[in-house]
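Researcher: We plan to redesign the surface later, but first we want a full-length starting point. C-alpha cells attached.
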C-alpha cells in the first residue's frame, strides 16, 4: 500500500529523514536531524506552508545525534511537547549519543571505520527543561490517541534500547533506526548498520508486523513494504556475515 494522502510529510534533511504528521492541534514531528540541518528543516517547513508554532509535539525515536540534533532548538523555538522513551532522558539531557553499538557485520565495520575517523563527535545541544515530557516505557496505546492521531507507539529496541516506533492504524510505521534501507552493499537487508542486539532487531520487526505494520518509513533510506522484513524474521536466515 503506497501512501498517497497528505496526512504526513517526509522531510529529507540529508542522511536523516524526518516525518511531519498532521494532528488536530497542528503537527507531530518525528525526529530532528543533525544540529546543522536546522536551516534546511526551516526551509522544508516553509515550503510546506507550515508555521513553526503549529509543531505542537516532537517524538524522538531515540537519542542519537542524527535524530535529536536540533531537538533543543526546536523546543526552544516552538515550545512543543516532547515524547521519547524513558531511557532516552539521561542521554538527551547530556546531549550525547551512547556509544554502545556495534557494526552489524564485518563489512560495515570496515566501511564505517573511515566515517568514525571523520565523525568523531556524537554530541549535540542537550535537551533540558523538558520535565513534562511524555516518557514512554514499553508499548503505548494511549499517547498518540490523546493528541488525536490514530495509532500506537511501540518499543522497538535492537538498534538502541530506547528505540520507539510510531505505527498508525492504517499500517504506516515510522521506525527511526529500527530498520534501514539506504545501503545496497554489505548485505544489510534492512538491518540497522549499528546495533546493540540483533535478536532484538528481529523481535522488533516481528512486533511491528504483528501490530499491523504494512509500510515501513525508516529514518535512513527509502520507504518499503513490510513483507521485505518478513522473510528475515521467519527463519532468522541472516547471520552476521
Ligand atoms: Zn540511531
Ligand atoms: Zn540514525
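Model: Full-length starting sequence:
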Amino acid at each position: 500500500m503506497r501512501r498517497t494522502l497528505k496526512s504526513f510529510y517526509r522531510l529529507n534533511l540529508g542522511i536523516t529523514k524526518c516525518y511531519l504528521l498532521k494532528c488536530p492541534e497542528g503537527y507531530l514531528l518525528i525526529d530532528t536531524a543533525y544540529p546543522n540541518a536546522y536551516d534546511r528543516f526551516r526551509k522544508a517547513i516553509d515550503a510546506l506552508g507550515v508555521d513553526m508554532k503549529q509543531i505542537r509535539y516532537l517524538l524522538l525515536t531515540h537519542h542519537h545525534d542524527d535524530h535529536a540534533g536540533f531537538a533543543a532548538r526546536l523546543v526552544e523555538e516552538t515550545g512543543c511537547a516532547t515524547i521519547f522513551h524513558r531511557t532516552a532522558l539521561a542521554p538527551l539531557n547530556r546531549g550525547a549519543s551512547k556509544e554502545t553499538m556495534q557494526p552489524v557485520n564485518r563489512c560495515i565495520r570496515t566501511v564505517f571505520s573511515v566515517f568514525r575517523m571523520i565523525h568523531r563527535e556524537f554530541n549535540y545541544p542537550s535537551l533540558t527543561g523538558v520535565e513534562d515530557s511524555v516518557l514512554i516505557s514499553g508499548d503505548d496505546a494511549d499517547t498518540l490517541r490523546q493528541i488525536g492521531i490514530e495509532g500506537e507507539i511501540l518499543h522497538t529496541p535492537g538498534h538502541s534500547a530506547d528505540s520507539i516506533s510510531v505505527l498508525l492504524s492504517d499500517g504506516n510505521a515510522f521506525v527511526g533506526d529500527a530498520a534501514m534501507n539506504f545501503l545496497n552493499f554489505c548485505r544489510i537487508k534492512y538491518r540497522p548498520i549499528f546495533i546493540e542486539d540483533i535478536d532484538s532487531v528481529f523481535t522488533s520487526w516481528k512486533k511491528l508486523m504483528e501490530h499491523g505494520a504494512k509500510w515501513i518509513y525508516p529514518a535512513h533510506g527509502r520507504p518499503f513494504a513490510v513483507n521485505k522484513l518478513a522473510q528475515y524474521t521467519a527463519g532468522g536466515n541472516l547471520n552476521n556475515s
